[in-house]
Amino acid sequence: MKTIPEINEKIKKGEAVVLTAEKMKELVANDGVEKAAKEVDVVTTGIFNLACSSGAFLNFGHSDPPIKFGGGEVSLNDVPCYAGLDAVDTYIGVTQVSRSLGMEYGGGHVLQDLVDKKAVTLEAHAYGTDSHPKTHIKTDITLQDLNQAIMVCPRSGHQRYACTNSSDATLYTHLGALLPNYENIIYSGNGELSPLANDPDFDTIGIGTRIFLAGAQGYIIGEGTFHDPKDGMGSLMVKGDLKKMNSKYLRAATLTNYGSSIFLGIGIPIPILNEQIAKKTAIRDEKITIPIYDFSVSSRSRPIVKEISYAELKKGKVAIDGTTSKCSPISSIPLAREIMGELKSLIEKGEFLLGEPIERLSTEKSVRTMKHEIIRVGKHMEKPLLCEATDSLKVIAKEMISKSLNNAIVVDNEDNLIGMISSLDLTKGLLNDKSKISEVMRTNILTATTTEAVETIARRMTHHQISTMPVLDEQNKVVGIVSLENLSKLLGRHKGLGISLQAKFERR
Amino acid sequence: MSKRVILQFPMNLSKDPLLSETILKTGATFNIIKTEINSTKAEILGDVIASDEKIEEFIRILKRRGVIIKMIDSVLLFSRNACVDCGLCVSLCPTQALLLNKDFTLKLELDNCILCQKCVVNCPVRAFKYQA
Question: What is the pTM of this model?
Answer without folding.
Answer: 0.87
